[in-house]
Design the sequence.
């Protein structure tokens, strides 16, 4: 009984020390880098090194938070990339919170698999992705129009014309796959500004950005075979 109590006291003391260390790192980060928005600070398996999640990226630092280590923390013995695993978890979202009325919905086959895509009509990688998506069946696709005007000045107008089309998904595919410009007026109410605000909240800085049914984030274009695999694995 005494041994159990002694072990419990030591465990609690260790937990308190770890918590104090995290608080120290947080305070030092705020003092040294007040302009950096820190989402979380977490101890790593390496003594004295802490994971810092900031603006959708992971860096590592010590107690004094003076220097940052940038790169992957790898466990070679177990063949694990700990940074990649943590980033995958940190970048997950709750897809139930997505405002689906702001997206173009298209159901293919039985529609059981689900993919949420933030896409810019003038993004070359988005066009490549759309061609791959045309080869995939049994999926429901929600396309959030996400024109990045800083890169593609005309994209917002094109996106608005696509949304205002009689058949938005057809107009989307016509433009991205067949290079056929939309003919609809861009004067209807669109969700584009709401999508841009949503994307900023979700730390979406590039297109295409996709989310699976389980909330996992995928960045960049993927081929049809790889997409089929991740769609099947998402639960």
Sequence:
């Amino acid at each position: 009984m005494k041994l159990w109590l002694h072990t419990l006291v030591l465990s609690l003391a260790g937990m308190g020390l770890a918590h104090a260390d995290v608080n120290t790192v947080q305070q030092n980060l705020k003092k040294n880098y007040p302009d950096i928005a820190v989402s979380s600070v977490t101890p790593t398996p390496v003594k004295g090194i802490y994971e810092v999640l900031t603006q959708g990226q992971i860096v590592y630092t010590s107690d004094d938070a003076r220097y940052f280590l940038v790169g992957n923390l790898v466990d070679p013995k177990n063949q694990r990339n700990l940074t990649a695993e943590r980033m995958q978890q940190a970048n997950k979202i709750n897809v139930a919170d997505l405002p689906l009325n702001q997206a173009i919905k298209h159901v293919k086959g039985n529609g059981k698999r689900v993919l949420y895509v933030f896409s810019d009509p003038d993004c070359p990688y988005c066009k490549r992705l759309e061609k791959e998506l045309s080869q995939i069946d049994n999926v429901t696709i929600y396309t959030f129009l996400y024109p990045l005007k800083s890169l593609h000045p005309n994209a917002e107008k094109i996106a608005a014309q696509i949304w205002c089309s009689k058949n938005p998904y057809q107009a989307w595919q016509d433009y991205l796959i067949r290079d056929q410009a939309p003919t609809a007026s861009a004067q209807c109410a669109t969700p584009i500004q709401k999508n841009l605000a949503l994307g900023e909240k979700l730390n979406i800085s590039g297109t295409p950005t996709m989310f699976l049914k389980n909330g996992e984030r995928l960045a960049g274009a993927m081929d049809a075979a790889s997409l089929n695999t991740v769609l099947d694995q998402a639960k």
User: Anything to note?
Assistant: The chain has seven helices and ten strands.
